[in-house]
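Example record

One chain of 290 residues, shown exactly as stored in the release files.
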Amino acid sequence: MSPYHVPQGGYGDLSHAPPPAGVNIGNQPQPQPEKLPGPAGHGPMPDYGGPKVGAPGGISPAPALAPAPASVPVGVPPGLEYLTQVDQILIHQKVELLEVVLGFETNNQYEIKNTLGQQIYKAKETNDCCTRNCCGSIRSFDMKIKDNMGREVIRLIRPLRCNSCLCPCCLQELEVQAPPGITVGYVSQVWHPWTPKLTIQGANQETLMTLEGPCFAFNCCGEVNFELWGKDGEEPIGRISKQWSGLLKETLTDTANFGIQFPLDMDVKMKAVLMGTCFLIDFMYFERSS
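Predicted structure tokens for this chain:
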């Protein structure tokens, strides 16, 4: 039995994810602003009944451009503070109409959300037209991951490598930088004749975790699970799941939906590396060449 509890339906209690900065959810009570005194001798200023900042159903306060220095956890790259509060995220690939209609390969784009469905980051592949349409799923790319304020917080760099179980050399790898220019980890493919296997590495390329998938990375009407194992390898500590998107979308497009689970107290840099691992898995096993 898995040591982390995954209730039926997928990804746990969807009501416990903290909202991204500036998002006002439901009818959570908010402190009411104190009424300002009016002109001398006229009592408090009247309440005109308009929406109030921070009130339920009113105007959400604008997110701060940057957290106060005292509120930034030690060792957390800028822009990744939110990841310290969650133990699972969802990744949804956008459908590209040009790719569906003409079969012309376009840059992949993704929305990264919490379990409430609120977008916390967005990602976009960057390369040239020739690379995308000639190299297919093994193509090289840079991928920029930005927060809701448009700041690039993570950069993924994938070189052109082989992707065949018959070739034990020049295997797939991915470098993760957070912020851009500072490497926090790597993802490297481990050769195996039939089982998908990847190692999650630190900044010095030391192996910290391994990820193992099924022999066949396909499950009609179900999830494809890649189990995350710690250094001791005794029991899984998380997983990356490719979710079934529906018969029409699975047949006509190569878009994919993923869920990532990891320990809440995991180093936020490794959470960023796992995010990059999910994108690499998408290209290796679920991206179809046009």
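Notes: The chain has four helices and twelve strands.
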